[in-house]
Sequence to fold (528 residues):
Amino acid sequence: MPASPSTARAINDRLALRLLQQEGPLTAGQLKQLTGLSRPSVADLVERLTAAGLVAVVGEAGEQRRGPNAKLYGIVADRAHLAALDVRTESVSVVVSDLLGRVLAEASVPIGDGTGTGPAVEQAVALVERVAKEAGADRLHTVGIGAPGLIDPATGELRDSTGLPAWHRRLVAALQERLPEARVIVENETNLAALAEQRDGAARDRDTFVLLWLGHGTGAAVVLDGNLRRGASGGTGEIGFLPVPGTSGLPSATDCEGGFHSLAGASAIESLALGHGLTAPHVGAGPWAAELVGAAVRGAGGGSGFGLGPGSEATAGVGSGPGSGDTASPGSGRGAEGAAGVGRGPAPEGSAGAGADSVGGAGGDPRSANGVVAGPGRGAGNAVGAGRRAVGLSESASVGGGGWAGVAGGPAAAATAVGGGEAGATGAGAGGPSDPGARFLDALADRIAVGVASVAAVLDPGCVVLGGEIGQAGGAELAARVEARVRRMSPLATEVRTSVLGGGAVLRGALLTARDRAQDELFTPPER
Fold:
């Protein structure tokens, strides 16, 4: 049955608006070409959309041509303002944007453990109102909220969950009360992150994938054939409750301890890192585990790395490039205050990678710029990896002699070795099995692979994205390790990718959802 004239007009209007959203301002001629409509039909829809306040003339086409330049039509971006919230157990972040999704203002506020339900809700609502005012929004059209926990598929509301703050559930109702003209929608945070990764992130080329969220907690989102799957009770992706080997027990209906969360939650990863002797500064509101993972990855790749003890004078990286006399190689670089880089490859002229600005360490004796020979050198003995403050040793202690050399794998004393600080440390050995950062990443990959292989065995998604702050911090280094282990555990080919949006994916997904809902309503102009 052919569409009625009114239905055809609505379809054409929405098509034109979507094109203006995706392509930016367009002339009537460009709309005609992209829609395939006749010139009178395009003129008619432009008139309707302009009268509805959705489209306006925003300029003229820049091309030179005879006669007046063609008018450029664009969406009226301030026709509606949107808000997105990322609700965590101890904080709330808010973004306010226009109808095109351009961020106009944003802010975050911490909410401590001891804050009561009423004060916590008031802090969050007041933050939304303040950010909206800073954005110049007199009213909000749609508010999208990302929160941990289950969303009831029948009502669309956040279900009451043990282990999560009570103010989470109260916040949705409070926002609706304070913003009566706004449409307030709530969605599970991991589902929103998956939407963002699908639209703007690591899964843009995938219709089927699983997002494994690795942040303060664990979660998963399942996208099959382009559609988000929530499950019968809204609980698809509650992977923290997945019973897995390697934990002290089994999870319960009210507590995910003993499940996959016990292996891959932030606190478990922090304990794993400390067990390998790693440490890193803790800054920002994200999980410390992300900083520990990031430090280990940088160490494995040669940037500023991790610490192994209480010392804090310098840290070292573990590189993979060959030493080359007095020139820094890829993966090493000159370390401030004697921070060392460890090279895997040999240095020329019989050296083992030494000297100032070379693989092996910065701050070395300029006279050893061509590297320390494999035989006895200047106070070095059979040293490997030199520089005055190099891996394994210090300027005051070495294997085979005192002075300027360091030995990878040897004990250090009173110097800045790999993470040793003033207290000393154990040398790491050029990124090999004795490297603590590599050992930590291997152990972490073992844990994550258990969850990924379990998901792959049931869903066969073909692709798993490691999301959240920890997934992003692990990058390609961690993803490759996980993929290799899953390949050995499962006959189902599963590509493991890393998030490009990290912890910001929840806010991005909430904003996309709010924008879609607003446009669904506004992009259907009333009939004349």
Observations:
- The chain has twelve helices and 15 strands.
- The longest helix spans residues 436-459.
